[in-house]
Write a structure and sequence with these properties.
CATH topology: Rossmann fold
Number of helices: 7
Strand content: 5-15%
Order of helices and strands: HEHEHEHEHEHH
Helix content: 40-55%
Mean pLDDT: 83
Number of domains: 1
Largest sheet: 5 strands, parallel
Length: 193
């Protein structure tokens, strides 16, 4: 968990929230429990006050991640979330039976006045953002999307691994958490040995 809102460039823009491998393991909170999904949900509750349990999820992933996003997107739909995606991502989701609404990229000008994804995030219409970085022109779009997500204080997932953990954590969060001390976990471990 990093406070991206505090990090700005010299001209005042929020820095990109995509982390390199050396920073992905940096954090300020920890969740511990009987299984990974529950532990992950606890960490998110400690860091951000919990993950959204309803609303709208925006999905735009790199071509390399399009197959991997199908199962988490399907589960998000089962959990009752509405899905919106950019055209390429929406196409793969639709082909796999997932209901999704196409939304314009940041770089796409809407002659009819329709909002693009950054407008929707800024207006509070998006609750979770899934955006995996890709190259070329998509890089500028991705930066604007992630900057808007950070500024709006919305849940943002930039890798398929974290998205999978978050989706599994949503199920665990519905069941509630048991709070135990580290000493209790240590006693359980000693008893198991």
């Amino acid at each position: 968990m990093l406070p991206f809102k505090r990090f700005r460039t010299r001209d005042g823009k929020i820095v990109d929230s995509v982390l390199g491998p050396e920073m992905r393991s940096t954090g300020e909170v920890m969740g511990i429990d009987k299984d990974f999904p529950t532990a992950f949900a606890k960490s998110q509750a400690a860091a951000y006050g919990g993950m959204p349990t309803s609303g709208t999820v925006f999905i735009s992933v790199a071509d390399a991640d399009k197959r991997a996003v199908i199962l988490p997107a399907h589960r998000l739909q089962q959990l009752g979330f509405n899905l919106v995606a950019t055209e390429g991502t929406a196409e793969i989701l639709s082909r796999n039976g997932i209901a999704v609404t196409v939304v314009a990229k940041y770089s796409e000008t809407q002659e009819d006045g329709a909002q693009n994804i950054v407008d929707l995030i800024n207006d509070g219409q998006i609750d979770i953002i899934v955006n995996t970085p890709s190259g070329g022109a998509a890089r500028a779009d991705g930066y604007e999307i992630r900057a808007a997500a950070v500024a709006a204080d919305k849940a943002l997932f930039t890798t398929m691994a974290v998205l999978g953990a978050a989706v599994s954590g949503m199920d665990a969060a519905d069941e509630g958490f048991d709070v135990r001390s580290l000493q209790e976990y240590a006693l359980d471990r000693e008893a198991a040995l």
